[in-house]
Amino acid sequence: MAGYLLATNRLTKQFGRHKAVNDVSLHVKKGAIYGFIGRNGAGKTTFLKMISGLSTPTSGEIELFGYKNQELKNVRSRISCLIEAPGLYGSMSAYDNLAIKSRLFGLNDREYIERILDVVGLADVGKKKAKHFSLGMRQRLGIGLALVGEPDLLVLDEPINGLDPQGIAEIRDMIVRLREEQNMTIIISSHILEELSKIATHYGIIHEGSLLQELTR
Length: 217
Ligand code: ATP
Prior knowledge:
By secondary structure, this protein is of the alpha/beta class. 30% of the residues lie in helices and 27% in strands. The protein contains six helices and eleven strands. A six-stranded mixed beta sheet has the order 7-8-9-4-10-11, with helices on both faces. The structure holds adenosine-5'-triphosphate. Residues 15, 20, 38, 40-46, 158, 191 line the site of adenosine-5'-triphosphate.
């Protein structure tokens, strides 16, 4: 599995008798925007939770930055994820939501937070309370929170789900910039191939828990 930033080997997650993820061997190169495509219920979230350390595999292996098994815990901090809805404090501003997380990383300077607001296109509304944000703005703030601490791998689960075309375009532009300017590797899931086709450099197609195909653009 050498040469990949993330590789899984026959990764499986079983709930009762149902294999939500079944023998998935997937490969992500450094600098890729990896489009992870599958219908609702195909197993995307379950897979992404396992690689993010939020769920334990039933069997199979995960190799991240060259580490596996017990050593994975040494590199988990280099991954950041936005899975399902972002956990925001609604009564706090976008700035303060970012400040809380930044403090945990010992990164509490104003410039740092303002730079993240800028990256996610929320510089003008940094003082606005998160509960007044649109869905797209909430998603972008969620991505901003995931960016705190400069992860090497960013995992985004359906970040464009439910957004209008402009919201989708904004997230897409942001992802391309993150890759170009910060050399980040990004895995982004969607149930609509078309929505990722403009930005993804690689694809993995998952269906009923199995990886059908991996493609390079
Ligand atoms: P969606 O986009 O709808 O979230 P998905 O591709 O992310 O779809 P998963 O959420 O990973 O799919 O779900 C895959 C399968 O695993 C589904 O059949 C789901 O019902 C099942 N599943 C997921 N989590 C659990 C759980 N905690 N317990 C039991 N079954 C689960």
